[in-house]
From TrEMBL:
UniProt keyword annotation of Coiled coil present: no
InterPro entries: HTH_HxlR (IPR002577), WH-like_DNA-bd_sf (IPR036388), WH_DNA-bd_sf (IPR036390)
Keyword Lyase annotated: no
HTH hxlR-type domain location: 13-110
Domain of life: Bacteria
Keywords linked to the UniProt accession: DNA-binding, Transcription, Transcription regulation
Entry protein name: Helix-turn-helix transcriptional regulator
GO molecular function: DNA binding
Gene3D superfamilies for this protein: Winged helix-like DNA-binding domain superfamily/Winged helix DNA-binding domain
Length: 110
């Protein structure tokens, strides 16, 4: 996992570091669904995220896996089956995501 240090060896802003890891339109929503709904298959995530393209969802899942927030398990079946779940590190984000959910609910988003 990357450390929050810039090219000059200075510590980056911790919020900048966090947003670099989980920011963007889909990563936090993916993490929320995996944290609340548990293990999900790729197509289940697609249905939960209307408007996300195959390319973007695949890339976001890959980045979340590389950063250690989610697990990806591929079963060698026909048709192929892939499941995603939260890691221990990913679960540490749930209190933050819960607060975001509460704030969004209280300020006009459902």
């Amino acid at each position: 996992m990357d450390t929050p240090i810039d090219r000059e060896g200075k510590l980056k802003c911790s919020i900048e570091y966090t947003l670099n890891k989980i920011g963007g339109k889909w990563k936090t929503v993916i993490l929320w669904h995996l944290g609340v709904d548990g293990t999900l298959r790729y197509n289940e995530l697609r249905r939960l995220l209307p408007g996300v393209s195959h390319k973007v969802l695949t890339q976001q899942l890959k980045e979340l896996e590389e950063d250690g927030f989610i697990n990806r398990v591929q079963y060698n079946t026909i048709p192929p089956k892939v499941e995603y779940s939260m890691t221990e590190l990913g679960n540490t984000l749930m209190p933050i995501l819960e607060q975001m959910h509460i704030w969004g609910t209280e300020h006009g988003s459902s």
